[in-house]
Amino acid sequence: MKITIITATYNSEAAITSCIQSVLEQNYPHIEHLIIDGVSTDGTLKTVKTLQEQHAHIKLISEPDRGIYDALNKGITHATGEVIGFVHSDDFLASPTVLSQIAAQFKSSNADGVYGDLQYVDKQNTNKVIRYWKSCAFTPKLLKKGWMPAHPTLFLKRDIYKKHGIFDLNFKIAADYDFILRIFKEHHLKFSYLPTVITNMRIGGASNRSLKNVIIKSKEDYKALNTNQIGGWYSLLYKNVSKLSQFYKK
């Protein structure tokens, strides 16, 4: 089972090495790593090209895009793996065995998707955990409570994207939430929870970078809930309040 990892970059020089290194350190042998770059003007491309020369499974595409979701969509269309996952440029896989565990989970559960836990870490000291997003086994009723798996931990069979589409670019910040609702409401699909930390994310993502983005994110979350006929304001309230528990590691 080949796993395609997609990383979207734009002026990501500060963190891209640790991102790629976390994939290189995996003990799972069947990996394709696609770097989808938005024509960076810093040292990102030089760093990626240097690593690409040393590792044949790293592939680089650098061209203008319409933002991160457009870049991820490009990666999906170029992916050749049976399973697709994302490691964003500021993120890194939590351990060298993560992809082996994910592959084993796919095989043992016969699932369409596998997801796990996420840690938000300090931007400078990545050993310092700020938030811990502990997930749980999925049941359909969770969606109305605003539940979602941490998107960076979600690995899906490539066929899911072929059958259910890619990220909707009408969403600027919440296209991942819209996509998750779109597939998790499908009762014929099976999702399996792997109770381990899959991804470490440096704190400071786009959705909470400013008050303006928080407001946009909330409006888009509400739109996603309505579009997918999952719930309304009460679901959005559940979703936001539930995040408070992430500051207390389980």
Automatic annotation (TrEMBL):
Single GO MF descriptor: transferase activity
- Keyword terms of this UniProt record: Transferase
Q: Does the keyword Transferase apply?
A: yes
**Which Gene3D superfamilies is this protein grouped with?**
Spore Coat Polysaccharide Biosynthesis Protein SpsA, Chain A (3.90.550.10)
- Signal peptide span: none
- Cite the Glycosyltransferase 2-like domain residue spans from the record: 4-145
Matches recorded under InterPro entries? Glyco_trans_2-like, Glycosyltransf_2, Nucleotide-diphossugar_trans
Membrane-crossing ranges are none
* The keyword Zinc-finger is assigned to this record: no
Q: This protein is called what? A: Glycosyltransferase
* UniProt organism field: Pseudotamlana haliotis
Lineage of this protein's species?
Bacteria, Pseudomonadati, Bacteroidota, Flavobacteriia, Flavobacteriales
